[in-house]
Amino acid sequence: MRLAPYDVAMPSGPASVEPPDPPLTDGRVRLRVLREDDLPRLVEEGSDETTARWVNVPVPYGEAEAREELHTMTAGWHDPAFPLALVIADAATDEYCGLVLLLREHPHDIMEMAYGVHPAARRRGLVTAAIRLAAPWAFTALGVARLEARTDPENLASQRALARAGFTREGLERSSRSIQGERRDMICWSLLPADLDQKGSPADPRT
Ligand SMILES: CC(C)(COP(=O)(O)OP(=O)(O)OC[C@H]1O[C@@H](n2cnc3c(N)ncnc32)[C@H](O)[C@@H]1OP(=O)(O)O)[C@@H](O)C(=O)NCCC(=O)NCCS
User: I want to staple 42 with a disulfide (CB 3.0 to 4.6 A). Which of 60, 66, 106, 153 is the partner?
Assistant: First the structure.
């Protein structure tokens, strides 16, 4: 499964979760559940070199692998062994642009956020927008007390997105995760409910 970071699963959060209804949107992106017609975009994203550099996607990644992910990423809504997966869709066209995952392997009320954007949709602020929508929902609808995220120190895009979305950089974890079979140091980031601004979205540290 993509991005599963632990050897021992300790599912967190409620067993069964309703996707946000109405869907979370800021007018530019809308977060919705993954669908069968997203498969071609999933294949393109999963087989992208940059995705495979930072994320534990199977290599090579084709339709069979995308179908497997479609299965695990829709199962999470009723099975805590799997992540909650929200598609980052273009609010105007509903086209798949990427994924935000809430990983449930942590104990208690901590979840880890992971994400990826289709190569053609990168550098348009979409993941930042999606994190800013998904984080408050996780706090209020799921009772999450702490959101975590981990980035490779060399993954600048991911770090900038987290900082932009209001996460705090906590520090370097040595040999923290295995990515594509190689032990890697990871920077741990966190976001707490108290970090939200008065509008209920993560405060932008640069405004
Ligand atoms: C990381 C990733 C999700 C970012 O998605 P995105 O939608 O392109 O990000 P945004 O457009 O919201 O940009 C966020 C910030 O990163 C910066 N950025 C984006 N791509 C960058 C790059 N290749 N190099 C440096 N900075 C980059 C943007 O300029 C922006 O910073 P700013 O607001 O200070 O200008 C995307 O690059 C991706 O899918 N990468 C492969 C998978 C991955 O790394 N997942 C995360 C694993 S921890």
Answer: 66
